[in-house]
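Now for a specimen:

…
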Amino acid sequence: MGSLFSWSHRAANAVPMAAVLAFLVLPGCGETFQNRSRALVESLPIPAGWSTTEGPTAAVPGTKLAAWNDQAGHRLVVFRTLPDPRPKGASSLAAEWAIRHQNQPGNQVIRSGTTTAQNAEFALLEVAQKNQGAGLAASDTGDLRRIYIGLQDQKATYWLLFFCPEGQAEELKPIVDQFLKSWTARRES
C-alpha cells in the first residue's frame, strides 16, 4: 500500500462509510453515543510521547471527545458532529467538508478526497489556515495546517483532526499516515 497522501476522488469500489465505521468502531447496536464515542477513542493508537490535553485545543464544530499533543507542537482532536440524515460515501463527505472550509476566511483547501487503509475508505481533507486568534496553536507565523479524517455512520460523523503550525506541515503527514495504518491494523486483529 502506498502513502495515505496519494489522494483519490474515486467512488466506484468505495466501501460505504457505515460499513467502515461498523468495522472500526463497534460491532454491536443499541449502544449510546457515549459508549460509541468512548470505544472510538479507546481504539486509537496514540503515538508514544503524546499526552492527553485537557485545556483548550482547536475550536471544533461538534462535541470534542478527546485531545492529545506531542512536544513538537503536533495535536490531535477527536470530535463528533451531528448526524446527517443522508448517509454518503467518503468522497461526498470530504467534498462537503471542503466546501465548509473554503467558505471560512483565511482557509485554503490544499487537498480534498479519500484515502484507503486496510481496505477501508476515509474522507480526508487538508487545510491551510491563517490563525484568526481563536485559541489555536501558536507558531512563528501563526498559520496552521489541519488534516481531517472523517468516518460516518447513521448516528453521527466522527472526525480526527490533526494540526500543527504551518512550518511543521511536512512532519505531520507521515504521523497521520502511520497513525491511520496502525489504527486500522489494530481494529482488524
